[in-house]
Amino acid sequence: MWPNKEKGFMAFRREVPPNPPVGERVKSFEEFIQSFPEDKTREQAYRCMNCGVPFCHWACPLGNQVPDFNDALKNGNWREALAILHSTNNFPEFTGRVCPALCEASCVLGMHEPAVAIEYLEREIADRGWREGWIRPEPPEVRSGKSVAVVGSGPAGLAAAQQLNRAGHTVTVFERDDEPGGLLMYGIPNFKLDKGIVRRRVDQLKAEGVEFRCGVFVGKNVPASALDEYDAVLLTVGSTEARKLDIPGSDLAGIHLAMDFLPQQTRRLLNKELPGPPIAAAGKNVVVIGGGDTGSDCVGTALRQGAKQVYSLEILPRPPAQRDDTMLWPSWPFILRTSSSHEEGGVREWSVLTKEFLGANGKLTGLRGVQVEWPKDPETGRPAMREIPDSEFTIACELVLLAMGFLHPEHGAVIGSLGLELDDRGNIKTNAGYQTSREGVFAAGDGRRGQSLVVWAIQEGREAARCIDVALTGSSDLPSRDSYGYEAVDIGA
Amino acid sequence: MDTISPKGLYDSRYEHDSCGVGFVVNIKGCSTHTIISQGIQVLENLTHRGATGCDPETGDGAGMLVQIPHEFFAQEAENLEFDLPDPGAYAVGMVFLPQKARDRRACMKHLEKAVADHSQTFLGWREVPHDSSALGWLARENEPVIFQAFIKREQGLDVEGFERRLLVIRKVVERTIRESDLAGRAQFYIASLSARTLCYKGLMLAPQMSRYYADLSEERFVSAFALVHQRYSTNTLPTWRLAQPFRFLAHNGEINTLRGNINMMACREQRIQSTLFGEDIRKLAPILTPDVSDSAMFDNALEMFVRGGRSIAHAMMMMIPEPWSRHESMSDEKKAFYEYHACLMEPWDGPASIAFTDGIRIGAVLDRNGLRPSRYWVIEDEAGPGPYVVMASEVGVLDVPQEKIVKKGRLEPGRMFLVDTQEGRIVADEELKEHVIGMRPYRSWLNRHRVTLSRDRSQGERIREKASLLERQQVFGYTQEDLDILVAPMAEVGEDPVGSMGNDTPLAVLSERPQLLFNYFKQLFAQVTNPPIDPIREDIVMSLETTIGRERNVLDETPGHCQQLRLLSPIVTDAQLEFIKKLDKPGIKPAVISTLFPAKEGPRALDTALARICAEASTAIADGATILILSDRGVDREHAPIPSLLATGAVHHHLVREHSRTDCGLVVESGEPREVMHFALLTGYGAGAVNPYVAFESIYELILKGALEVESPAKAIANYIKAIEKGLLKTMSKIGISTQHSYRSAQIFEAVGLSAALVEQCFTGTVSRVEGIGVAEVAREALMRHAMAYSGQSRHRPALDPGGQYRWRERGERHQYTPEAIALLQHATRTNDGEKYKRFAALINDRARSLGMLRGLLKFKERKPIPLKRVEPASEIVKRFCTGAMSFGSISKEAHETIAIAMNRLGGRSNTGEGGEDPQRFKRDHHGDLRRSAIKQVASGRFGVTNEYLVNSDELQIKMAQGAKPGEGGQLPGHKVFDEIAKVRYSMPGVELISPPPHHDIYSIEDLAQLIHDLKNANVHGNVSVKLVAEVGVGTIAAGVSKGKADLVLISGHDGGTGASPLSSIKHAGLPWELGLAETQQVLVENNLRSRIRVQTDGQLKTGRDLAIAALLGADEFGFATAPLIVCGCVMMRKCHLNTCPVGIATQDPELRRKYSGRPEYLVNYFHFVAEDLRAIMAQLGFRTLDQMVGRADILEFDPLPEHWKARTLDFSGVLAVPKPWKGETRYHSKRQDHGIEKALDHVIMERAYPAVEYKAPVRFEQRIRNIHRTVGTMLSSELTRRHTLGMYTGSLAEDTVWIDCKGCAGQSFGAFAVKGVTLNIEGEANDYLGKGLSGAKIIVKAPPECPCVPEQNILIGNVALYGATSGECYCRGVAGERFCVRNSGAWAVVEGVGDHGCEYMTGGRVAVLGKTGRNFAAGMSGGIAFVYDEDGTFPAHCNRGMVDLAPLHRDSLPELRSMLERHVKYTGSPVAEGILKNWHDAQGKFVRVMPRDYARVLAQRKGSQAAEIVHVAK
Q1: Mean pLDDT, residues A432-453 taken together
Q2: ipTM value for the complex
Q3: pTM higher than 0.90 for the full model?
Q4: Is B19 one of the annotated active-site residues of the chain?
């Protein structure tokens, strides 16, 4: 017997299916997340309070209508829940897995209790949709006769391609790698996002009529002028220029960028050739520099590969465990988060600055670091880093993985060829309509806004698609995050 | 000069009046001068029911209607040198003429000519002797010159014929002069013109009457009756002609359905035929004189019916029918009479006590709900000219020796009382009506000619349409919310859904989204001048039944008149509609008119389509159709629907203009209507029935989707219809209308954001004050919806528009409180971060501009700034801040006390809300904080309103209405009545508590003045405030409130928050405060009533800018509610009604309350931010003090939004009008009201009770009392409470410490809020509100021994006795009026008979009724026990068993009942009680125990505590 819809949050506690034990899951590179039986999942939906002002919906970059899909779940109407999800999000199966869940941080229930398990529910709805065959190709009824080239097939590119195609335009996606998906494919480890999940979505796009041209590096192996034949071009090239660490010893062998390390593992898993010499963590002491999501992925991958020990270094201080006055609800709380990879092992260090890589025979043997502190600068009021005297230390290691984030898109290839203006952070500059300094050329995703989350990439792709549609046809039926679209309808004479 | 022209937002159309009314009549028709002087005495003793305005010497009007004193005039005529014929052969006209001689002569000539034109003889003029010095200066300035005209009857004409001719003459002259260009034409007025009656009246107070009109003092001036009236008007500007009586009647009350009555009468007068009048009948138009009061128009209509051949009783029964449809014991013949006459005309609905006369018969009638008091005495006078009757709004208005009174009665709801002076007897209601209804075979006519639509709700075969349901839903603008929040719950549970936290979305005209035309209208509701009705507990007076079809000549009665279709409900199913479409009977013929228009042709096509449907309607009528069905079936890609309200209004008013509206009924078949408001509007603008076919289909769809839990589709449809019907009843009852028949086309709405042209075309007569969109924009909205359905858009949106009206959605409607705004406000106040507050304010102010508050369209003019330091400090400004009325019960103890502490720290004022306050909070706590609320609210439920509560206040707020649900009551379900809440509400935990829609002691403006007086007596140190909600005409009500001596008036915006309210009320009732406040300020200043009253406003106030605009529009003070709650942690869940508030505010659940995180400091921070914000604006505008700023609307200017396609059509000039204050007056509050408290009888009493007041020593004395002594015993009680700190925890005085033996007629509110230890023993009788709010005192009432009336058969005390009593005792040796013990929560009372609605809403205490009860006993009674001595077994039929069970006496009850009876005998010597006690064993069996089910359940649960409660009274 289900409780009153309004009181579910008092009847049920938050529960998500527990992950398999660490020992078991590090043996494999397979996705390990679990599901509850249907009724138990519905219980979690019942915890949603259907707020008059749903902060989750507001906090979600996509504007996911969380209370509405939860309500559908409460009614047992999975298909409706899926439709609601898809009305704001092209790829809920991705965000249901790899999103930090800004929604949950702003959940009203989360003020005093564990938030509603929104991300889990999203994943369950999407997975069920695939399982039941509800998610099918939706090719447009009519073609507009316009063509659009999308450069880059990460989440932004895929979302834009799907939207543009559904609006009737003929879309060609250029991908420099051998398979579409961008970071979804080769950046995020398989144990967090099974590659079959990415492929089936790409297949849906293909079935809807989107053409993918892989192995095409526009501006490198194909000239940018090849884009001239399209009525519009969208650059979703990502933010791939990694931040480097220019300290003594950084040329030693055994120091690698995370994005050289992680894709290799996925390629191995998919039985693909490796693009360069293998990087392996097995039997090594590994230091991951950078405590973000990529760093965490490196930790999980290294542990799975059989690393002896994994250290994770972060330059910023250890965040508090709870919200404090500087991050009152519903703001995003910068609190200590422990990913599944962190659970799996390794040592996390905070307030650590790497000063020098140590080596012998050109090979890495360890690193020297120092403890830092972050007192407030009296002038700016902002925290400024200061080394703590006499706090130097060394760590012996044979592999260092640099995961310190990304600066901006690569300026060389298509951006340089097209001569696009950049903003002061080195990202592609656009106007409010996502158009770059060059007419007909648009940009979206990390390449435009700087490195960010998958959910933001999808959002950018969707909005850019709408802007391109307007540019091409004068108006657009495509949805936007914050408007239902009445302003766009044509009421005739 | 008589009327003033509209300027600003003020229009004399909104004025209301009410008053005291009465008559004295010699039953045998013997004319004496005594009658005249008695009439004057009655009038003088009703003076307190009238009012004065800014000139204390100028009353609102008084007058007297009498028979023509022939001897007197015969002699006068001699002096004037003309001869008077015999009585009856001439008429006297009482004529008000212009002051200017030339105009006056012109008017006289017109009259003389009309007389001659109609073959009568003009005899001459007599200037009526008068003494202008008797008048106030204001009345004198506008005094007309008054002449009497003498007209001789034509030979061969009988008196009736003569009267008819006189009517024609009057109408012709009135019209000629009204349409002339005479400068003084407005002053011309014929007060009476008859061969039988004569009216003396004017703008004066009762005592001035006989001084002004010397005639009235002449001994030869005689009459067999005098019908008198004392007026209380909401306006003060002089209007001599609106003084009453009119030619036939004097009215106390208000006609709510006037607009519809006017429109329909205008149509009827075109079809009217009369053999009596012949061709002259055409000269009577317009039957209803334009621009006069509701009472005057009622008089016009009555006059036409009487002169047209009906008896006055018959006409009255037609105009104010009894509530017949649900009457359990009415004869079928009588029902047939009413059903038949429903085919002729709609009722004139509203509270009314009408005294009327045709010159021979004089009588009175009461509205169906008995909302006005009318008491009468029949007096023997063997020595004098014979028996006579005095009837008046109060008893005791004439000094009569008690031994001569043979009958003391009251007029009962729906009943008539008539004295026929020709027959020399009183004709009882039954006899009178038997006669009228027996005149024709109404039932057989109905059976033969009327068709009744079957009650069967089955839907029949589904009608297929080309467009999919989704497409049609989109075309008709359905949103996800319409389905989830409105339609689904209605179909599931059959209730109008409930929501909370008010409305922070834009007005339709300011919304960027296409809005349904429905959303541009706001429901009007009753406040002060008439009461709303409780459609649930008083459903015996409510009816949804109507008839539609062709009306015939209203002056005639034939079988064909009832060839109409009778509908039991205005909502019809598809199958029912098919039935109607196929009807083919004599006189009943339907015709379908398609209301689609070609979508491709753009907005202009709508105009063409409107013209087409109007033309088709006319043609159809010409072809014999009597039912027009406006249908929008068949929408598709090419065809869009005309908004159903536009189509309905257009056709309705087209037909009204053509005068063919009464030839047909209108039925609307539309996919558009789905919620209550839609149906209210469609019927309010003329539809007799509505078929919402898309709503029905949507319900089927929801069932298919699994979104509905219902047993069957048929049940879901039935539920949905039931929900709409309940909602309609509620909407009607809000304005005090009880029948759908009179609600139909009554247009009880105000439009906001519609252009004058559109209103004139389709909604003629509806108020629309800020202009707005026209047909083009309406079309654009319709086409946007249509395009959304048929463009590619829908492909990308499988679901409907999310809506966002009721809950925030990114793609939905804009809200003021967005997640961002809420977060900023909370962060700012929690960390005392002024910068964050500024970001919050910037967000709100900017959003206000772009997203839809009216104030967003105003800007400040450039002024010379002053330095900030010269502006008065924030610490002064915060003293003008109040928090909203949120009861402990609606919010948690923690939240309630946080707010109180914060406001006390600031020196502002918090508000208890409705629901009492724990006296523990009256003392400072150990932190030195005061947790008591400075404002104590007095709402309709009177929960916890004790003497102690009132004494411990700084301000007493009478809540007339509440922004989120004006005109409605409320209820706190039993499961929310926790121990602590029950304690302060003087109720029992777990027992449901109902707040009635009206204050049962305020049915009109003079009642409000009385309550203000009561509260002032209860706390002479406190201020009394009156809370109103903005709607059109609120300014004139505020003027009435100011005249009623309130110290403060609060104008609440419609958008305020609430714990629980029907969504249809949150969204569709009331107006933004900007309009209400501006109107109030303008009216108060214009009427010279502003300086003496403080004006406060509230409703979504958030920032300094909001306050600055409010101040400039006229607010002295400011109220906040939602913002403080958000500061305390509220996140606008909008679930307050569910007790599930996740932040511990709107909940009593201990687990949830633990999550509460608010603190007084946060509120203090917030209010300082706001005050500083305001100061900055003051500095910028150059105001040093707020006083300087108040009412300076000239500093504001309209700031249009040219880019907004709807808002650009607005015009604010009315809002920004700034009337000039009168000399010596201010635009802000600067003077104190003169309450006249020093004249109270209690000063004498307190002096005499000195030993008790000083030392608690017992004292007993005798005191003469009269009806003019009001609120006796109250000030004494409060003084006792104050001196001796009496209260819940602090103890009380010993029983009978002060014993007063009162002799005479007790005035209103006798013993109000009297405390324990006070015993008031009346030998005489009592008026209304005896023992109101009784707080422990004992009241005894018995007739003087010399009175020969049999006490148990005669009325002894008035209506609404013991209203809201919390404890105490009352023993009445006689019968009580209506609503005895309404909302009693603890008093024990014995009475020997009661009127209708006895023990209504009672929640505690004991009542023993030793005689008959009226109808609807125990309605809404959730607690306490009543014992009814039911000798003849008729009681069960009179009892409303919705919430109570009837049973024989229970063993447990015997001791307490016995003790009550013994005390009754002890105090009153009642032989009735004595007889019962003597025969105790047998008598027990005749008692019925009335036991609320809820109460019994809780009692059973807590058996132990039951004993404790009995001890309480047994003593």
Answers
A1: 97
A2: 0.95
A3: yes
A4: yes
